Here is the input.
Amino acid sequence: MEIRTMFSQISPAYDLANTLLSLGLDRAWRAEAARRAALPEGGRIIDFCTGTGELARIFLKSGHGVTGVDFCEEMLDIARKKCMEFRWSEFICADATSVPLPNDSADGASIAFALRNLHHVGKVRAVFEEMVRVVRPGGKVMFLELTKPGHGFWRLVYYGYLCLYLPVMGALVSGRSGAYRYLSQSIRGFLDTDQVLGIMADTGLEDIRAYPLLGGIATIGVARKVNKT
Here is the structure.
């Protein structure tokens, strides 16, 4: 199944499924990611693969302007309704590797829980290059992603969760068992955190920092676009 079609089908239950599957941690993780991004007051951020606008809404509530970009119109419909109270928000249907926005036009760029899907189609580097393109020199690039714990107890627990709990609960909540089998597979097949940080360095970012969450089952990465000399 095409990824865009899959997301359009699960969009009505997407937020509820995320909350249940993460035991409510996804919201706290997004809030922490927004805090770690440390954008200037009133700054503008481009939220890549914005989905239903959960991270966009957090930035908006903090007083930032947000342009959310996603390739799934059904997801964007939910995001627009969710964020309609905020004046400085807009949502664009576009591919994350080719965003119709000018160079150096934002104070930051973010992406949450989507790099795995981009890795599946070989686009992680291209999306980071696009994020760097739209951010001003000195601006921030941030990602939040489900990752693989390095070793020990958390790795054992997490792989049990991925193989058993996630596909079953996802199917019950959304009615789409295939989508959550895909999610489990996408996490297990994703890059190691160090590989993602290496791609960030290769695309013109510096001061790169990683913040593992709950033993490394999720990771926030924050970097700064190199200032022009």
